[in-house]
Every structure is written in C-alpha cells, then in structure tokens.
Write a structure and sequence with these properties.
It is built from 16 helices and 15 strands. With about 500 residues, it is of the alpha/beta class. The longest helix has 23 residues. It is elongated, with a radius of gyration of 27 Å.
Length: about 500
C-alpha cells in the first residue's frame, strides 16, 4: 500500500483528520442509498459519485474495501416524520401496483442511472425489507437498555432518557431543548413522551399494506433503524466510514448514533462524511419540493428547464468539478461549461497518444510532478477540482507540444499518459463515451483520418495544393480541426 497521508473531513469532530482504518489494510464503509419510489435525480447523483470517488481512491491506495449501500424500500414516511403515508405505499396506490413492484422497478432504474454515471456497484446492497428481523432485534436491545418505550403498539426512542447518560446532538451540534422547542406538532404525538422522541417501530394502520409481525404489533420499522441494523450486520459493531448527504446529518444520522450507543453502549462509526447539496435556483433539489430534474431527463434533455441533453459523463464531471463539501447550483451554463471541460480533457489525452516523441523535451520528471500534485489534492479530503485543474495544466503542455512549442521524450510521454489515465479514468471514474465499447471502431476511425492526412502530406510535398486544401476543407466540414505544425499535421474532432 502506498504511504499516503489521506485526510478526510469528519463531521463528528468538525475538522480534517488523518484516515486510519480500524483494521490495517481494510475499510468498512456504509453509505445511505435511495428510497426507491421514483426516478433518481441530480441530488441522488451527488452522494453516489462522491462516495464512488472515495471507494475508487481507497481501492487505488491498496485497501480492501467493503462498501455497503442500502436500498430503503419501506418505512420512509412523508416528510421524514413519524406520521403520514409510506412513500412507496403511496406510489403503489397511485399506480395500482404491489409496493414491492414499485420498489423493484425504481431500484432497477437507480442501478441503470448509476451504471451510466460510471459508479461502481457496492460490495453489498441490502434492502430494508430483507432485514426486518435485525431491526426488531435492535429495538429489543434499546428497550432492554432502558432507552425506549412502547406506546399503543408503537415503540419510541426516549431521547430525554438517553440524553441523561449520553449526548443527543453530538453530530449536528443541536441541544435537546432546542430540538424540543422546534419540534412540529404532529398528529399522534400523544403517543410520545415528548415530541423529540422518534419511532423505532410503528404500529400499522388497517389500510397499511407493508407490515410485519413483531412483539409489539403488526407494523414496520422506523426509518432510522435500517442503517444501524444493516451497518452492524455487514460491517460489525465498529466500522470506519458512514457517508451520505448533508441533509441526513439531522435527524437521520443523529438518530443512528443514538441507536448504536443505546444498543451497544458505544458509537459504531469512526468517520462521518457528508456531501453538500445540489441546488436549483438557490433551493435544495428534491422530490419533496417538486423542483427536481431526473437523471434520465438530463440524459435526454426532456425537461422544461433544460436547453440541451447532457451525457452521464458530463453530469459526473460537473459534480467532480466542485469539492464534495461545497454547494453546487444547477444551471444550463454550468453544465455546458462542464461538457466543454470534459471534451478538453479527453482531447488532451487523445492528442498525447498521437504525439511523436522527441529525443529532447519534457521527461518523466514532469509527469511525476503532475502525479505528486494530483495525489496531494486527493489526499486533502478528495479535492477533485484541484486534481482536474492539474490535469488541465497538463493538457496545456500537450497542446503546446502539438503546436511544436515544446516536446516530450518517449519516456516522458508514456509516463504522463499513465498518470493522466490513472487519475481521469481509474480514480475520477471518467470515460470517453464516444469510444466506450467501440475501441476497435475508434481505432479504425483514427487510422482512416491519419491515412487521409498522410495523403494530404504527400500532396503538399508534391505542391498539389488543390488536393491538400480539398482534404483539409472536407475534414473541417465533417467536424475535424486540422492543425499544421513543423512536425506534421495533427487533428481533433
């Protein structure tokens, strides 16, 4: 394993910390996945890409990573409150489908979108409905330890009792009195000792389709239970990283910490990591606000707010151009700029592949300096925009070389190719969509253009300017930019 000083920002300590896994050479990582009742939108893309970047980088550094990302297919109530309709059941009623039919359909759609975005599949993807027994066992442990109570067939976490021995609010920085003051008056809160308490198990109403037997009632687990129960099952009582969107810090992750401590006496997670939001006109993008654009709408351009279709790699590049802890505001202009930036990076790599090396020029030392800077950026809390800026700097040198102003030695060119491919493709997870899956076709296509340029070079040497100009102009009409340099012609699409 490479000796890297990886720093990650721990929401719990509110500072960057040196990453030291609990078990040498191994990392346990849990990330909150989607609630599958609708198509994934841009807001879902950000945590998926953020933690895919982390997953890729940890593996690149030599760690064996178990990456767990859940599928929430039950128990996620409207407005994330303890009352209201289950979102999946509500969708099932609207579409006259079985709830599991809804969950399966949108799980498939989520997987399709994540694959298009270049996100590697997690090691384990547990479903909440497949772990009802584990969630019931978690509730029993919390009850036995005196931090929960049963009320009318439901079970609630006793925040006040917990706060007397531990601290509720350690992650979000909130104190219990503030939480109690700001709690909304919800229907059914008479079941609770106080409004800050949250559901561990909910008794199902007669019309509720999704229900399971339990010692307390036929019902379903509270939303917060699944991640604590499944994280423990697949990663153990203590694991390294828990990730998700910043909107999950409170109440979801705060409640997870309380459940873990209440059930086992100590925290479960060492590092808490959170990506910031994607906004649209300054507002958080989300299904509950009705201001979201689905990923499939981005891919096809079929939405009133879109002026064009944007490819999955353009979306990925757009997200990686901002640090994961900064807010990103959607605009067509920003996405169009990302599309051009991605093309510039991929064109730079293609130009480097075609460059004729020289006996003298930029050596391996230049490539190693680029590599060092890129590693420093990644080690500084996954600073992907700085990595991209260093790759752009390398592209400037490549373009200078294509214009004959600088040169690369053979070893220098090969080393830079290796560095740029490693960071652009393996770590940032980008790919050339035009060439993806068509490598043989792309090679033949490039060969045909090179052949035309060879014929043009011979025509120029024979002073057959008409043929030379005709080839250049016809290629330009087809979208090829041909540049004449002292070392011959170069081209790009």
């Amino acid at each position: 394993m490479k000796p890297h000083q990886l720093l990650i920002y721990n929401t719990l300590s509110r500072q960057k910390e040196r990453f030291r896994p609990l078990t040498e050479g191994r990392v346990g990582m849990y990330v909150c996945g989607p609630t599958v009742y609708g198509d994934p939108h841009l807001g879902h893309a950000r945590p998926a890409i953020t933690f895919d970047l982390l997953f890729r980088y940890l593996q690149h550094l030599g760690y064996k990573v178990r990456y767990v990302r859940n599928i929430t297919d039950v128990g996620h109530l409207e407005h994330d409150a303890d009352e209201g309709d289950d979102k999946i059941q509500k969708k099932a009623k609207l579409e006259a489908l079985e709830p599991m039919e809804v969950a399966q359909y949108y799980t498939n759609r989520y997987h399709e979108a994540m694959a298009a975005l270049g996100c590697l599949p997690p090691s384990i993807e547990p479903h909440a409905t497949g772990h009802i027994i584990e969630q019931e066992e978690l509730v029993k442990q919390i009850l036995r330890n005196g931090f929960a109570y049963e009320s009318n067939g439901s079970v609630y976490f006793d925040v006040e009792a917990y706060n007397q021995k531990h601290r509720y609010g350690i992650l979000s920085g909130r104190n219990l009195e503030d939480i109690k003051d700001k709690s909304r008056a919800l229907a059914g809160t008479d079941e609770k000792h106080n409004q800050a308490d949250f559901a561990l198990w909910k008794r199902a109403q007669p019309q509720h389709i999704m229900r399971w037997p339990s010692p307390w009632s036929d019902g379903f687990p509270g939303w917060h239970c699944e991640c604590t129960a499944m994280g423990r099952k697949y990663l153990g009582d203590h694991f390294d990283i828990h990730g998700g969107g910043m909107d999950l810090v409170f109440p979801h992750h705060e409640c997870e910490i309380a459940q873990a401590v209440a059930s086992q006496g100590e925290p479960m997670v060492k590092y808490w990591m959170h990506n910031n939001m994607i906004t649209i006109e300054g507002q958080k993008m989300g299904k509950s606000l009705g201001n979201f654009i689905t990923l499939f709408e981005f891919f096809t351009g079929q939405h009133a707010k879109l002026t064009a279709a944007y490819s999955p790699m353009t979306i990925r590049f757009f997200i990686l151009q901002a640090h994961y802890r900064s807010t990103v505001d959607f605009s067509n202009e920003a996405l169009a700029a990302s599309q051009k930036g991605l093309e510039r990076l991929l064109d730079g790599l293609k130009t480097l592949e075609r460059l004729a090396p020289k006996a003298e020029g930029l050596t391996e030392a230049y490539a190693e300096d680029v590599e060092k800077k890129c590693y420093e950026a990644m080690d500084d809390d996954l600073n992907s925009p700085i990595v991209i800026s260093h790759l752009f700097d390398a592209c400037r040198q490549i373009n200078q070389a294509a214009d004959g102003k600088v040169a690369f030695t053979a070893a220098g060119r090969e080393r830079l190719l290796q560095v740029m491919r490693t960071f652009a493709f393996d770590i940032l997870g980008l790919k050339d969509e035009a060439a993806d899956g068509n490598a043989a076709r792309e090679q033949a296509f490039s060969g045909a253009v090179d052949l035309l340029l060879d014929i043009r070079a011979k025509a120029k040497a024979a002073k057959d300017w008409a043929t030379s100009d005709q080839i250049r102009d016809r290629l330009a009409a087809l979208g090829f930019e041909v540049k004449d340099t002292k070392d011959g012609a170069t081209w790009k699409l």
